[in-house]
Amino acid sequence: AQSVAQPEDQVNVAEGNPLTVKCTYSVSGNPYLFWYVQYPNRGLQFLLKYITGDNLVKGSYGFEAEFNKSQTSFHLKKPSALVSDSALYFCAVRPAYSSASKIIFGSGTRLSIRP
Amino acid sequence: NAGVTQTPKFRVLKTGQSMTLLCAQDMNHEYMYWYRQDPGMGLRLIHYSVGEGTTAKGEVPDGYNVSRLKKQNFLLGLESAAPSQTSVYFCASSDPGQGARTGELFFGEGSRLTVL
């Protein structure tokens, strides 16, 4: 079965420190991979995506993610965390060439940045 | 540019009551979706539509119905609400020229439904 795992329910980081939010996936064939962010009482906002090409993808608000095919991972990273980065982050995967209805979301990781 | 707008934002129902959630998008997107978000479970697809007049079942369609009479609107109905339908509901849309091909979705701000 196709799935997405976000192994950490919560990640706590001090402001200014690097952050990583982990995501691993299991899909047949090549994946399209996404990160979305959800601020309190808001809908999800697209952050970045990997479709093909360079394994390091850069997105909004200084975030980046690295696609690792051998480890089937797509971890979200940022070199220096801000308090305003505190939010709920979702990883999502879609098998390539499938319909958009086949997008699978992880369970979410709450990122908390302390001043 | 409003994007994706959901109404109402909050609603409390009694078991057995019916209601409709309205989603409107002004981006001329072909594809529209209804998801529910429950703690620790991510987003689960209820129903979706690939164009005006078409609808299809997602992962958790039971107890819900949908209609897409106009391209810009996607309605989600609960005919007889149950406590298990207490959740936050999100509407999303995507552009077949880009988003639907790659999966990028545009979300509304959510509708919080409580069924007593």
Structural commentary:
The complex is a heterodimer of chains A (115) and B (116). Chain A is mostly beta strands and 115 residues long. Chain A has a single domain (3-114), classed as Immunoglobulins (Immunoglobulin-like), CATH 2.60.40. Chain A has strands at residues 3-5, 10-14, 19-21, 24-26, 31-38, 44-50, 56-58, 64-68, 73-78, 87-95, 104-105, 109-114. In chain A, a hairpin with a 4-residue loop joins strand 8 (64-68) and strand 9 (73-78). Chain B has 116 residues and is mainly beta. Chain B has one domain (4-115): Immunoglobulin-like, CATH 2.60.40.10. Chain B is built from 1 helix and 11 strands. In chain B, a hairpin with a 5-residue loop joins strand 4 and strand 5. The chains are: A mainly beta (115), B mainly beta (116). At the A-B interface, strand 5, strand 6 and strand 10 of A face strand 5, strand 9, helix 1 and strand 10 of B.
Observed structural traits:
heterodimer; A: 115 residues; mainly beta; Immunoglobulin-like; six-stranded mixed beta sheet; four-stranded antiparallel beta sheet; 0% helix; B: 116 residues; seven-stranded mixed beta sheet; 11 strands; globular
What would a concise description of this structure say?
The complex is a heterodimer of chains A (115) and B (116). Chain A is 0% helix and 52% strand.
